Structures are given as C-alpha cells and as structure tokens.
Amino acid sequence: MSASTSEGIALITGSSQGIGKAIAIRLASDGFEIAINDIPAKSLTLEATQKEIQELTGKRALICVGDVSVEEEVKGMIEEVVKSLGGIDVMVANAGICPCGPLNDVTLDEWERAFAVNVRGTFLCYKYASLQMIAQGRGGRLIGASSGGGKQGQRLMGLYSSTKFAIRGLTQSAALEYGKHGITVNAYCPGPIDTEMVRKAAQDVGGDTEKVLKMYAQMSAVGRIGNPADVANLVSFLASKHSEYLTGQTGSSKNDVESLLIVQLYNFNGYAMLMESRLRNPPTKLRLPSS
Ligand code: NAD
Question: Which atom of ligand 1 is nearest the CA belonging to 16?
C-alpha cells in the first residue's frame, strides 16, 4: 500500500452508477485516491458521480472512460491512473452486464458479448493492474464481481451465471499466482442488490419489478433486498490492510467471506420457483445493454 497518508489508489470499473458508484464513494471516504470508469455512453453520469464523490468526501475522482472488454482501453486506463495518481493499489473489476432469457434464445453474438464484458473484462483488469502492482513492489488488492449466480445456476440466467462462475475460477487462480507478490484476489458474490441491473433483470424474469423486489426481500434472511452500500462495506474491508491474509475467496462454504455478507441469506429454492413461474411465460428477447 502507498506510503503517504492516503490509504492508496483505487480504480473501480463500471462505477458511474449502482454497486460501483457505492464502492467508489466508500473507498474515497476510507481515504483512497479514486479513479472511476464507465463506457463512453455513461460520460455524463460519470461526471455527475465525480461531483457527488467530491461533495460527499472532498476527493476529486479521476474519470477514465473506457470499455473493459477492450485490451488497449484497459491498459490505457491503468496507465492514466498511474500517471495522474501515482500508482495503483486496488483494482475493483466491477463492470458487468446481465443478459436474461432462455438458453436456447441466446445467440453466439450475445454469448460472446457477455463473456467479453464480464470475463475478458475482469481478466484484463486483473492482468494489467497486477503487472503494475508487481512493478511497484508494494502488493495490492484485486477484487472481482461474481454473483450468487456464480455459485448456483439459475433458470433464464444461464449466460450470466456462466460468466460469473468463470470469474470465480479466474479469481481463485489469480490468488494462487499473485500471492507471492503480496497481491490478494477476492470476489464479491451478492444475491439481488437494488440497482438498475437487478430492476431490469426482475422485469425480464417477473414482469412486475416492484413485486419481484418484494419477493427478493421476503426471500432474504434479513427481510430486505441488499443495497449497493452493503456490497461497498465488504469491498471496503477487502481493499483494506485488514484483509491481508484473505485471498481466493469466492467459494460456497458456509464461512467464506461473501456468504457471511450476502449469498447464504437468499433462499435459492424460492428464486428457482420464481424462475419456474416465469418459464410459463418467458420473455422473448435477451436484454443486452449497448456500450
Ligand atoms: P449496473 O448495471 O447498475 O452497473 C454496471 C455498470 O457497468 C454500468 O454503469 C455499465 O455502464 C458499466 N459497464 C457495462 N459494460 C461495461 C464495459 N464494457 N466497460 C465499462 N463499464 C461497463 O449494475 P450493478 O448492479 O451495479 O452491478 C455491478 C456488478 O455487480 C456487475 O458485475 C454485476 O454483475 C454484479 N452483481 C450485481 C448484482 C445485483 O443484484 N445488482 C448481484 C450480483 C452481482
């Protein structure tokens, strides 16, 4: 970690909104210098988020526009962060897309796009951030975004679930390779968190978004749907010096880090029933956000 009074330097991808934005705000409050990223179509939202971070924390976040599925853009983002902020200590590979729909409706283009953003994007973020961290010689934190769907397959979310399983394999393998450099690698695996992504997915699988969100809340052991700050609380710990001995955590045993926070709180049988009922009236098209 950085030797200055700052906690270090953190880049969070897909952070103009939702979970990424909450993580950026939280890490800035924790004392990190922050860089935020999203696709060009979200440039205005990124500027609004930059303003909000400054108002809430007094920190001016660096904006790095770019697509995480494009190698040169990820490389360029890391270079920009290093040049402007002086290095990189925490990489949160949060950007992702959530296509929903029956597996037999998935086209190869849709399959390739979801894997490009979710899996290739996470790989590129881990790769170029870790190369920089190794060169700096002061360790670091790589944090990925898997999902409850990365621990258990789900009806009408087969493509999304496949990408999130892949992120867990990547995270565990990276932890084994980078540990000797003082770099830890973990991923969060939330159940439903109330963001634009989950609302769109709820629409796709259940039709009435508010009804589906209410059902998620009822399925949760704590009686409410998660919010982005719940995930940011976990990432705050994973990014901190206190998580130094925790790495490769994405697994499904009862005591691993993400089950402590969110995943085991959800009753996946209930989720399967919801999907089952939707199968009787399936959505006709996959929904892939354009970037
Ligand atoms: P969101 O859709 O609100 O935000 C995702 C952001 O990623 C968007 O701003 C989007 O523009 C950006 N993005 C998409 N493609 C990109 C690309 N190629 N390059 C850069 N940025 C890109 O979603 P969210 O709910 O905040 O989810 C954040 C992460 O958490 C995702 O990886 C998601 O799969 C994961 N997750 C979310 C939930 C949930 O219930 N919301 C649950 C489990 C996991």
Answer: 9
